[in-house]
Structures are given as structure tokens and as C-alpha cells.
Amino acid sequence: MIRIQNLSKQFGSFVALNNLDLHVKRGEVFCFLGPNGAGKTTTIKLITGLLQPTSGSIHIAGIDKAKDPMAAKRILGYVPDMPFLYDRLTPPEFFQFTGDLYDLPRSMVSYELEKQFTLFGLNEHRKTLIKDLSHGMRQRLIYASTLLHQPDVLLIDEPLVGLDPYTIRLIKDLLKDYARTGKTVFLTTHILALAQDVGDRIGIINHGKMIALGSLDELIADSSQASDLEELFLDLTAKEENCPT
Amino acid sequence: MSDVTALFLKTRCKLANSFRIARDQSTFKWVFVLLFASSLVIGLWALFYHGFVFLDSLGGPGFMIIHRLFSLFFMAMGGMLVISGIVTSYATVFRSDEIPFLITGPFHISSILLYKFFESSALSSWAFFFIVVPFVGAYAQYQEMTMFFPVVTLLFSIPYLLLCSGIGTMITLVAVRAMPRGQILKAMLCLLAVGAGLFAWWLLHEANAYMDDEATFMLSKLVPGFRLSSNAVLPSWWLAEGVDALTKGFWLRGSMLFAVMLSNCLVLCLLIAWLGGKIFYRAWLGVSGASGLSSRKALSLPWLDRSLDVIARNTRALILKDVRTFLRDPMQWSQVLIFFGLLALYFANLRSFRYHMLPDKWRNTIALLNAFSVSAVMCSLGSRFIYPQLSLEGQSFWVIGLSPTNMKKVLLTKFGISAISLGTVSMILMAISTRMLGLEPIARWITMLLAIAMSIAISALSVGLGALFIDLQQRNPSVIVSGFGGTLNLVLCLAFMLATIVPIGLLLHLQIMDQISERQMLYGLGIGLCWVTILTTFATLVPLTLGINKLKRQEM
Prior knowledge:
Strand content of chain B: under 5%
Radius of gyration of chain B: 25 Å
Number of helices of chain A: 9
Shape of chain A: globular
Radius of gyration of chain A: 18 Å
Helix content of chain B: over 70%
Structural class of chain A: alpha/beta
Largest interface: A-B, 36 and 32 residues
Order of helices and strands of chain B: HHHHHHHHHHHHHHHHHHHHHH
Shape of chain B: globular
Distance between the termini of chain A: 36 Å
Largest sheet of chain A: 6 strands, mixed
Strand order of the largest sheet of chain A: 6-7-8-3-9-10
Strand content of chain A: 15-25%
Number of strands of chain B: 0
Helix content of chain A: 25-40%
Oligomer: heterodimer
Structural class of chain B: mainly alpha
């Protein structure tokens, strides 16, 4: 579903991503792990098109992002780690705004609004301006509006930031269910337990290079020392940094 | 080390870093900026100098104007600085991302406000030096004065700028504290009504006032604020009189007036610090939302939503978002309302000045001057509101960037909204002006066409350059506006205004001087309108194309 080939990104002389190759399959929850500054957010932003690659290619469901970005954007959904939204709109207005940008019929937007607002507990905030919402509520609104056009590929940067335990459970279930319907979920996280819980496959990135890739069982089996994901992560990233574990 | 010193040291580090970054910029950019700034100063200098020579050639009344021009100029600058101070201090003192950090740190609230006041003053007044320097230079050259004159003026200008900016900051502080959140609309309307009432009273008073001296009477009719500028209570008068006294060798009087200026400035700083300690924290809580949610229902505009049903969904989404955002931000719409409201009041009262009884040629000239003032307001609004629009999308811009809506449509929609809004308001104003002056239909059409050309070009320049110099990280509109792109935009808008209005004005001037015939005048107007059309097309297409290309490559 997502095919990344020789993807590189440089910011001036700094290499944020170095010849990344990756294939994420349909119906898969893929978790991307890595220390701070490893290149996770850069990768996700390159897939969304919010950043332009220095070299390499990205194909989404067979569509070349560079050649037909509009077609790729139609089947992508993105939840960023920081919920920056239009502060002076109300949640239903933002929802409608998103629907209009994706050229969805009003009847569909109205139906989805009732469904998603109920699911994410946004009904009592319908008349509040977004600037007055809490971080968690804004994050819920982003989830609701991202799911509005039912994207084939859902990209999430740090899915649990600022969410309460109830919403965390909701999101975890939602991600697994979403992948079961044949959609693809690509997420970056620092929370290893989340990757363990929902990830079908895990990729570990450091200094812009993929250093491990496979299912949790495969990764642990490949490692001589680690018995769980935490040990594996620390072992791999410490080796890269030449630090004692 | 005191907390204010620590804050200023931080600013010094920030400035040093900015300078280091600027030094690494391309030489072309440096050369361009320097060339542009020096051309602006030299151009304005020449303009002011020839203005003085022209006034001198008028004889008696001209001499009277020159005599009072210094205080009149600084009074006008002061008025603009107060307004600029109100706007900038709101963004700098209340909306800055730095405030929560400062409030939770070991800083006195009064120190925070004092520090932010200096920052706001710097942001709101640096551009004024680009007008003050050529004016003072030209004045000194015309009066054949020594270098002592500009030095003394600069010395007086610093406390004067702080004083004006400080008044603006205090108005903002008191207004924000006094107006409960959610009732800003009501309060602003009341303020506007009071302001409009005072202005109308002033216009009528000026129109009917009786004076012994006929020349002074006539001049006070022609030059708004002519009498007011010599009021000894005004800081602009202290400046004008102080500089005059010092350059003429009256040291005691000059020093006394400087001391008056400086002591008032220092008292104002103390007042700001004191007021900051008393009300700033509560006022900030009110603005930041920490003291409760807005009680007023947001304006939803369902009629606009319905009436836009006929256009493409994504275009409608962009229009509705921009209109709602604008109308829900009192700082934005209130400034537009004040600027255009004052002009509308002035135009509506043109008959109080008996201008409609003047000969045709003079009425045409006044109409052109009115077109000039409407255009100047459009230039400043274009730079203040339209230019930073794209940058102010900020980190929310990912929502549009991710959607299957192309950037060309985003930019053209913003251009369309701006051009239609500016065009509607400026045409209404021009219609009031020409009607009040009782102009011929052809003159009415010319001013209308000028208003349309200005609206289109200013919108295109501001939207296009706004995209070309987009800065999605910056949330303070004052910083965006006062950057390189914002300054370039303002200068280009003003240059376009001069390039379109001056040729038409020149024709009118030649006609007044009886140097061209009626037939030549008509030919000239035809050529002038072709020139305006070509220039408008160029000023529209080039920045929009550059802006679209930049947005297509923009990373978020």
C-alpha cells in the first residue's frame, strides 16, 4: 500500500533521512519507532507531502506521489502530534470545512458528523470555538475529521499525545479495527507498549536509517540479547550511539 | 541581575542570532534591501523638499503652512503611532507565545509588561524613521540648517516615539482589562460610536469656527488639524518648539522642553509598570481564556453558507473559513472599520467644508486627493491584513496542504476575497466622495476605475508577496508585517498607487494651469487609463504567479 524507495531528505547539510526503503502492506498496522530526531516525523511528513523529498520515490496504492499528488492526497489521512487547527471555527464548522476540502457531499458530512462526534465525545463542544478546546479535545477533533473521508492510508504521528485513558483505549481499538477493514495504518510513537499492542510490524529508525524491520517476534528472534521490545530498542539504538545499555 | 536586565540580555542574544542568520543570507538580498531602503529615503527626501519649495512659491499661506508643518507632521506621526501602538501591543503583549513562559518564571508582572512595551514600541515605530529621516533632512536642507538640527530632532524623537507608543499600550491594556471576554463586539461598537460622534463634532466645529485671521481660517479649512498642532499640551508641539528653540540658540527653552518630553516619557514608563502590576495578569488571563470560556455565541453566517452553494465545495470552504476567522477576530475587523469608518465620515461631511461650491477643476483635484487617501488606506490595510494572511495560517496550514485542494486555488481564493472586499469598500467611499463633491459623470467613472485598479493590484501584491515570503512559524502579525517581505509589499503598493494616480493628477494639474486643451485632456485621460490597465495587469499577474509557484514548493 505504501512503497518507499531510496527516500532521502536533507535540511541544508543535515541528512534527516538516508535512502529509506520500506513497503507497508494493505490491512497492516505499521509502527515506526526511533529516538528523538531519528527521522520518524520527517518520514511521515514526506509521505503526506507536507515535505518534499530530496531524492527517492513514494507510491501510495500504486500512485506515484510526485506525479499525481492530488490522487494520493484523496486516499491519505494524517493526524499530527500537535493539534494545530483553525482556532476561530467551531468543531462542526471545522468538520464541514474538511468535508468541503475533500469535496464530500453535505449529506455524507452530516451523517459522519453525528457518528464521529458521538464516538469521540465532541457533542457537548459543538458551539465552542476550537481555541477554547483542550489539547485532548482538539486531538479528538482531528481524529474525527481525518476519518471523515475514510482514507485508505491513515498516518499518525504520536497517536496518544495528550489523550485521556478512555480515549487511548478508544484509539487503540480503532486502529486495530481500521486495519481489519483492509485499510493501512502507519504510526510513529515513542510508546513501546503501543507498538507492542497494535503493531503488526515494527520498524526502528535511527539517524535517518532503518536499523530493524519485522514483526515483534521476528525482531526478538533476530536479536541475541533482547527478550522484549524495550530491551531490543535500547540495544539497537545504543549500539548506534556507541553507548552502554 | 534584575529581571528586566535578564530579559533585555535575552533580546540581545536573539538579535545577535538574527544578525548572524541575516549575514548568511545571499548578497543579492542584502544589496536589494539596502538599495531599496536608500531609494525610499532619497525619493521621499526629494518629494518633501520639492513640497517645501512649492509651498514657498505660494507666498503668504505657504509660508504659514511651512511654519506649522513641523509640528503638524509630528502630530500626524504621533496619532499614527498611537494607533500602531494599540495594534502592535495587543499582539506583542497579549498574544505572544512567550508570555506563559515569562509569567511562570521568576519575573515581576510589571517587569514583563515593561519589557514587552519596549519590544512593542520597537516593532511599531521603526518604520517611522523611514519617513521621519527624509522629512527632517528635507526640512533642514530647505531651511539651510546645520547638522545640529537633525541630531536634535533625533534626540527629541526617541522619547516622543516611546510616549506615543506607550499611550497605545496603555489604551490596549485598559481596554482588554475593561472589556469582558465575549463582549468585545459590543464594547468596540460603543467605542466606535463615541469616536464617530467626536469626529463628526470636530468636523462641524472646524467647518463653522470663526477666526479673525482670514488666512489662518482658510488654512484650517484646508489642512485638518492645523490649529490643533499648535496646542501646547501636545508632545508634538514640545518637539517642534524644542527643536526650533535649540537650533536658534535658545538653550534654556529648548532644554526645558526636552526635559518636559523626557520626564513625561519616564512617567509613562512608570505608569505602565505600575498598571502592569495591577491589571496586566488579569487582562492576560481574560484574553488567553484561562478565566473562562467565551459566553457569546460565535457568528455562524448561515446565509453566506447557503448563498455560496453554487460554487465548488473546496472554494466555498476556503471562503467561509477566511470570512468567519476575520469576523470572529475583533482586532482585525475593528481596525478595518475604524480606518474606513473615519474616511466615510470625512467624505460624508465634505459639504460642511463647502467643497462642492468650488470650481470644477478644484473639485476634481479634491476628488483625486480623496482617491489618494482611500488608496493609501488600502495600501496600509493590504500590508497589515492581507499580506500576513497566509503566514498566519501558521501551523494549521497542514489541513489545507494535506487536502486534495491545489495551492493555486487557495491563493486565488484569498486574492478574490481581498479584491472583492477592498473593491466594494473603496467604491462605496469613492461614490460618497464624488457625490458629495457633485462631480461630472466622467470624473466619477475615473475615480471608480482607479478604486477598482487599486483594489485588484493591492490584493494581488499583498497575497502574492504574502505567499512568496510566507513564514508559517511566526504567529505575531506585527513581526510578519515589519519583516523584509512586509516592507517590500508596502513600498510596492505605495509605488503602484503613485504610478497610477500621479499621471492622472498631472493631467488635472496641467488643465488647472490651462496648459492643455479640453481635447488634449481627453486624449491624455485615454492614455492614462491604458497605462493604469497595463500596470494593474502587470502588478496582478507577476506577484500571483510568483506566489503560486512558491506555495507549490512550500514545505510545512
